[in-house]
Amino acid sequence: MAKRTTGAAAIAAAAERTQNIDNSTRQASQPEQSYQDDTSGTVDEGSGDEPSCAIKQLPSRLQFKAAEVASLINPVNEPSFGLTAAVSEGVLPTPLAIAVATAKYWGARPRTLTVSFLETTPTELRRRILGHLNAWTRTGGVRFQETASGGQVRISRGAGGYWSYLGTDVLLIPPGRPTMNLQSFTMNTAEKEYTRVVRHEAGHTLGFPHEHMRKDLVKLIDPAKAYDYFLRTYGWDRTTVKQQVLTALDERTIMGTPVDQDSIMCYQLPGSITTNGRPIRGGTDINNSDYAFAGRIYPRSLAAASTGCSETSDDWPESEDVDVNSYAS
């Protein structure tokens, strides 16, 4: 699983994405296809009737505020050394690029996110959804807790597919609007869909991006076939496909597990759109790698976040200082 980090590379990568923020906001609401591996190892392309996940983007006017909120909640999110480092690399970051480079994690301190439902939802169904949201607490220190109304996380089961805003961005969504959508989920929905979809969307709310956007996986996708497939299956235009499927995360801007096709944050993609004809398997549940990563990002106690080492300092004569200018050559 990938973790976004900060600095010059993050700002440079973000600068490439800022031109299409408005398009992403308008177009990223299409319904996550349930591709299931069959016994031959192929992946069913499906009919397009089942929703497909997209990470919801904030309007561009809120990017600066979102970056400010993310940094206030978790100072580690802020690309604090990014300006100087970016300029040294010849990158001229715009304010919007800096904002987009800001990560959206909730911080290491254990916390509870309140959850409410926008439609009238039976008690049994609410409990079932909450149970799957909280699957991440097996190792992670962020818990979802129901509240009657006005939750930080607001779930709708209306049209529009499966989606969630990313991490701390949920705090910028106006009251009464959803931060997560679970289209048509009922008590009759198969348990495997609860496991696959609800836990995946909870991962986005925790700040985890799509694993299939790792460079090693994106390069396996044939762009022409992907454009055609997603247009036929979901009606996605080229801009949406590029943003949601074909734009790789800059590996310099992430720190996480090795590329993992079985992560729950990875799309299941059919072999018909890959260059080698083999499907990208995608995860159907939180795997051991996901759990381990969540435990590192969100330790269940502050003590668990400690390495057990204390900070100390030392000193020596100024004459022994290393000449840093020697590294310039």
Mean pLDDT: 75
Number of H/I helices: 12
Compute the number of strand runs: 6
Strand order of the largest sheet: 1-5-6-4-2-3
Order of SSEs: HHEHHHEHEEEEHHHHHH
Global geometry:
globular
Q: From the structure provided, what is the oligomeric state, counting identical versus distinct chains?
A: single chain
Please outline the major beta sheet.
Answer: 6 strands, mixed
Rg from Cα? 21 Å
Question: Helicity level, as a percent range?
Answer: 25-40%
* Range of strand content: 5-15%
Uncertain segments: 3-51, 80-101, 307-313
Tell me the structural class.
Answer: alpha/beta
Distance between the termini: 37 Å
Structural topology:
Elements: H1 8-17, H2 21-27, E1 54-56, H3 63-73, H4 82-88, H5 95-101, E2 111-117, H6 123-133, E3 142-146, E4 153-156, E5 162-165, E6 180-182, H7 191-205, H8 215-218, H9 223-234, H10 238-246, H11 288-297, H12 302-305
Parallel strand pairs: 1-5, 2-3, 2-4, 4-6
Antiparallel strand pairs: 5-6
Helix pairs in contact: 1-4, 1-5, 3-5, 6-7, 9-10
Short description:
This protein has 329 residues and is of the alpha/beta class. The chain has helices spanning 8-17, 21-27, 63-73, 82-88, 95-101, 123-133, 191-205, 215-218, 223-234, 238-246, 288-297, 302-305, and strands at 54-56, 111-117, 142-146, 153-156, 162-165, 180-182. Strand 2, helix 6 (123-133) and strand 3 (142-146) form a beta-alpha-beta unit.
